[in-house]
Amino acid sequence: MLVNGKKLRVLTAMVTPMKADLSVDYEKAALLADFLINNGSDGLVVSGTTGESPTLTKEEKLKLFSVVKDASGGRAAIIAGTGGNDTASSIDFTKKAEKLGVDGCMLVTPYYNKPPQAGLIRHFTMIAKETKLPILLYVVPGRTSVNMLAETTVALAKQCDNIIAVKEASGSLDQAAEIVAGAPKGFSVLSGDDNLTIPLMSVGGDGIVSVASHVCGREVHEMVYAFAEGKAQKAAELHRRLLPVFKAMFVTTNPIPVKAALSLVGIDAGPVRPPLVDLTDAEMAKVKAAMRAAGLME
Catalytic: 138? Predict the structure, then answer.
């Protein structure tokens, strides 16, 4: 994903730190952003699924965008999660984020109202016309109940110059490959699943919007760039080493495991907001075992 002239291959879908009273901890958000950038993230996606976007107010999101942007100091691209299931509201919110100086926006396929493919094209083109920000589309049918077909993504990439990438979390390598084959030159396909990063790159993808990079950012960065530089064997070895961690981050609903895992590397991101619940002791044991297996903790 090319933003501000820089190719972004490893973006972290950043969690939103919370205080014990479940208010957003902006001070820790700034510290976490700095930590992630220092540990291999080319960019940060703020207020996506992993950032608990469904339970954040628009005011909280806008403040997060500003805090994280300031903390980055221009060292990494800040991509604001501004998409929703109401086109007019998404346009308005994207404009507000743009005024704050974010480097791009991520727009998820509308959830719950289940638009047909023609509706998806209308939704995204309407937003794209109202912003100059680079746009990262986000396809995650497991969350939204609607898949955006490869032909739809390709059509959007061709129609809108500022739609420059897609986060593909459909789980379908066929779909990813079809997008790579049909999209204009320079359009990026990023994996939305850590465990499919290297498989997706093998069919022409560019990198990952990662959850696991919270706890193994340097390793994920090394893995992705090794593959991009033609060192497939090294990338595969890193993939196999990190696979237990990739899987452990989804022992239950994201971002519950990764928030808990951060505590194992010395970062307190606090609790999750209801309706999510914190990790059980049994689930935490699985996360710890995976971290040990990958050599990330004793």
Answer: yes
Catalytic residue among 28, 61, 167, 259: 167
Structure tokens that stand for 87 in this block: 């086109």
User: What helix, strand, coil percent values describe the chain, rounded to 5?
Assistant: 50, 15, 35
Distance CA 216, CA 212 (A): 6
Backbone phi and psi for residue 107, each to the nearest 5 degrees, phi listed first: -120, 115
Which three-class secondary structure state does DSSP give residue 213? Answer: helix
* Banded model confidence at residue 25, pLDDT cuts 50, 70, 90: very high
Residue 189's SS3 state is: strand
Other CB atoms within a 10 A radius of the CB of residue 269 amount to 22
Distance CA 72, CA 226 (A): 25
Could you give the CA distance from residue 277 to residue 204 in angstroms, rounded to a whole number? Answer: 37
Tell me if 47 sits within 8 A of 65, measured CB to CB: yes
Please pick, among 138, 158, 185, 234, the residue that the annotation labels catalytic.
138
pTM: 0.97
Asked if residue 275 has a cis previous peptide bond (ω within 30° of 0), the answer is: yes
Known catalytic residue at 26:
no
**How far apart (Å, rounded) are the C-alpha atoms in residues 179 and 207?**
14
- What would the pLDDT profile of 98-146 be if each residue is shown by its tens digit? 999 999 999 999 999 999 999 999 999 999 999 999 999 999 999 999 9
Q: What is the number of helices (H) and of strands (E) in the chain?
A: 12, 10
What letters, b where the CB count within 10 A reaches 16 and e where it falls short, cover 30-63? bebbbbbbebbbbbbbbbbbbbbbeebeeebbbb
Query: How many C-beta atoms lie closer than 10 Å to residue 4's C-beta?
Result: 11
Q: Side chain identity at 62, as an amino acid letter?
A: L
Over residues 225-254, mean pLDDT: 97
| 54 secondary structure, DSSP code | G
3-state secondary structure of 158: helix
Read off the tokens for 205: 């993808």
